[in-house]
Amino acid sequence: MEHGHDMPGMGDMAPPSPMSMTGPMQHHDMMMMHMTFFWGRSAEILFSGWPGSSDERPYMYFVALLFVFVLSILVEWLSHCRLIKPGSNHVAAGLVQTLLHALRVGLAYMVMLAIMSFNGGVFLVAVAGHALGFLFFGSRVFKRTQNPAKTSDLPPASC
Q1: How do residues 106-135 score in pLDDT, each as one tens digit?
Q2: Distance of alpha carbon 113 from alpha carbon 39, whole angstroms
């Protein structure tokens, strides 16, 4: 057996080098994909090449963090808002509920995908956005009424 491998010929197999790659990735810089949390401003969040290199545009990392923070707050607002008036047409109310649910799920998935960049800053601002959003829209701190019977048009989010 070659090179101490159990299977013949396995020592000859090596992954192709980035220089020998062809196709859509051939002209792009190869960016390492992290599978553990890391700290730093050089991250790729949600979209290919965004926010870009921290050397070229250092402010864009903070714009990306602000974007994730606002998305997290919006998810909490949608989870606790009351936009449908009592006595509304059931069909119209059902359609509005469905639209709000789809929007909440879509935004929540965007936050999840941003966290999957494994950037520590993104994780912290997502948690902070959810916490602040819950404080403003879900907790009793800013509620005018003491009636907790119905606090939202949407059912609780489930994972």
Answers
A1: 999 999 999 999 999 999 999 999 999 999
A2: 17
Reduced to 3 states (helix: H, G, I; strand: E, B; else coil), residue 23 is coil
Tell me the pTM: 0.71
> Which residue from 39, 53, 55 is spatially nearest to 123, judged by alpha carbons?
39
Check if the beta carbon of residue 154 is closer than 8 Å to that of residue 78: yes
State the DSSP string of 41-101.
Answer: S----SSTT-S--TTT-THHHHHHHHHHHHHHHHHHHHHH---SPTT--HHHHHHHHHHHH
Q: What is the pLDDT of residues 18-54, one digit of tens each?
A: 454 454 444 455 556 778 888 888 788 888 877 876 6
Amino acid identity at 30: M
Residues 6+ apart with CB under 8 A from 13: none
